[in-house]
Amino acid sequence: MKYQVDKNGFYGEFGGAYVPEILYKCVHDLQDAYLPIIESETFKAEYHALLKDYVGRPSPLYFARRMSEQYGCQLYLKREDLNHTGAHKINNTIGQILLAKKMGKTRIIAETGAGQHGVATATVCALMNMKCEVFMGATDVERQHTNVERMKMLGAEVHPVRTGNMTLSDACSEAIRDWCCHPADTFYIVGSTMGPHPYPDLVARMQSVISEEIKWQLEEKTGRNYPDYLVACIGGGSNAAGTIYHYMDDERVKIVLAEAGGHGWDTDYTAATIHRGTTGILHGAKMLVMQDGDGQIQEAFTISAGLDYPGVGPMHSNMAKQGRTQVLSINDDEAIYGGYELTRMEGIIPAIESAHAIAVLKKLNFKPTDVVVLTVSGRGDKDVETYLKNKEMAKEYGEF
Ligand SMILES: *Cc1c(COP(=O)(O)O)cnc(C)c1O
């Protein structure tokens, strides 16, 4: 239990709940309520029934034969891209909306960057007949138009946020502001392992179904229930948290995570928070944050809208600092190449976020017997234009 949250909501020096006084009561109510509810038999039954029949779980664990040959290992892909709505985010929103209902809340709010979490939230709100409002940076509203239309069709109200850089970080701030105005009836569905305690732990638990399935699927396919390597991309950290959750304390398993390097972690155009960040408080928790000497948050830059966040959740801040995880910075061009490579070799177009994880394979030296499980966090339909427009970028790694 070395890397789990403690009873005060800390992972080592990171985490906690740094919220304005007006939110104390609702954050504390949530801290008291979440474990008894999500560990109850009724919750588990409803949650798992929806994951099975609505989301389509278990997601396959697929042996990628050609990519295995290419990289000299036994590569298995955990196919979160095949979930309903096209990514892992729905695992979390299903869980949180059930929790919101059991807590008697009637109005749902959420933040979104690329729009994936907004769509996953709007989806479960339609399913549960709940009022849904989504905060989204005005820049992202323009860049991610299809997801805005999807949210509207699902019945959500989308609020463009015009403060700051008008991206994800500003949308989070605005959602917290709205929450302050409606603490009694509103449930804030947070989209990643970030925010004040208990959100990082709550989201990690909701995503932990990923590694729960990996365990028995690996046992079935290889006769051993643990891999030598786990690989995932990391933005706020939720798909990575789900992938590693049941292996965190198992030191036989190496964990390698890919953060978004943008033009390079040592340039001004990066989202490589673990490489570049220092300890700070952002959106209610202490974590690694990209900030200047005065504590002003620096804008994150990456080709991938879903990894475009200047912080990384407290669980991952701590695990990276303790040396439990190896974190690689993957640049835009490497991710583009990784996306094309998986597409051409396995017929799977990954989300550009997930393509960062694919690019990790080039950087590791495997033994032929090494079992590697890599999470494909989402599908790439939303990124086809980005791949085509930026194909040239990846030329130095090979031609497609
Ligand atoms: C949102 C998103 C991510 C990044 O978020 P995490 O919380 O770090 O998982 C990664 N991949 C996809 C497909 C996403 O939609």
Describe the overall structure.
- The chain is of the alpha/beta class and 400 residues long.
- It has helices spanning 24-38, 41-55, 65-71, 89-102, 116-128, 138-143, 145-153, 168-181, 199-207, 209-222, 238-244, 273-276, 314-321, 332-346, 352-358, 384-389, and strands at 10-11, 14-15, 61-63, 74-79, 107-112, 131-137, 157-161, 186-188, 229-233, 254-262, 278-282, 285-289, 311-312, 325-331, 371-376.
- It is globular, with a radius of gyration of 19 Å.
- The mean pLDDT is 96.
- The chain binds pyridoxal-5'-phosphate.
Strand fraction band? 15-25%
Major beta sheet summary: 6 strands, mixed
Q: Helical proportion?
A: 40-55%
Strand line-up in the sheet with most strands: 3-4-15-9-10-14
Q: What radius of gyration results from the CA coordinates?
A: 19 Å
**Number of helices in the DSSP assignment:** 16
Q: What general form does the structure show?
A: globular
Question: How many E-type strands?
Answer: 15
Question: Which whole number gives the mean pLDDT?
Answer: 96
Task: Quickly give the structural class.
Answer: alpha/beta
